[in-house]
Amino acid sequence: MPFSARPSTYRIEAAPTGRARCRRCKQCLPKGELRMAITAFVRPGRSTLLYRCARPACIDAAFASAVLAVYCTASRVPAAQGVSDEDAARVRVTLENAALCDALARKGVLTAQVPLQSLRYGVHGTRPKRESLI
Asked: 23, 90 in Cβ contact below 8 A?
């Protein structure tokens, strides 16, 4: 019986302890900080948990694209029981912003990423910088 790969699953949660590290920035995630829990399936009956902090700097375009490939929209990304609706919405908007920037960059609309207070809904993210026609 051949092995069929399963896609990874993602979940928004608050860190229960301060021991986990972010897979991108390698910093410890303090207790209570929002993070994305990634369940990567290794083989049948075996999976591993990976974590990435929910800071906009650590949710890059590639990660957002991987999450949205599984759930189609950011609103479908599940949140753990202890996460407030506002916190989950903030992480979901960050995922949408990163995926939007990635899509614009692939179409050639973007030339650089500049930090911005918000792209949509007042959440910190990145905003595309359009190429000057001058």
From this structure: no
Residue tagged 């990304």 (tokens): 77
Q: Is the pTM of this model over 0.85?
A: no
Cβ atoms of residues 119 and 126 within 8 Å: yes
Q: Phi and psi (nearest 5°) for 66?
A: -65, -40
Q: 22-56: buried (b, 16+ CB within 10 Å) or exposed (e) per residue?
A: beeeeeebeeebbbbbbeeeeeeeeeeeebbbbbb
Phi, psi of 119 (to 5 degrees): -95, -45
For helices 85-106 and 61-71, what crossing angle results, to 10°? 110
Determine if residue 65 is left, alpha or beta; phi over 0 gives left, psi from -120 to 50 gives alpha, anything else beta. Answer: alpha
Domains in the chain, ordered, with CATH?
A: 9-109 (3.30.1740.10)
**Mean per-residue pLDDT pooled into runs of 10, the chain (134 residues):** 75 93 91 92 85 88 89 92 92 89 74 47 46 44
By C-alpha distance, which of 128, 55, 122 is closest to 95?
Answer: 55
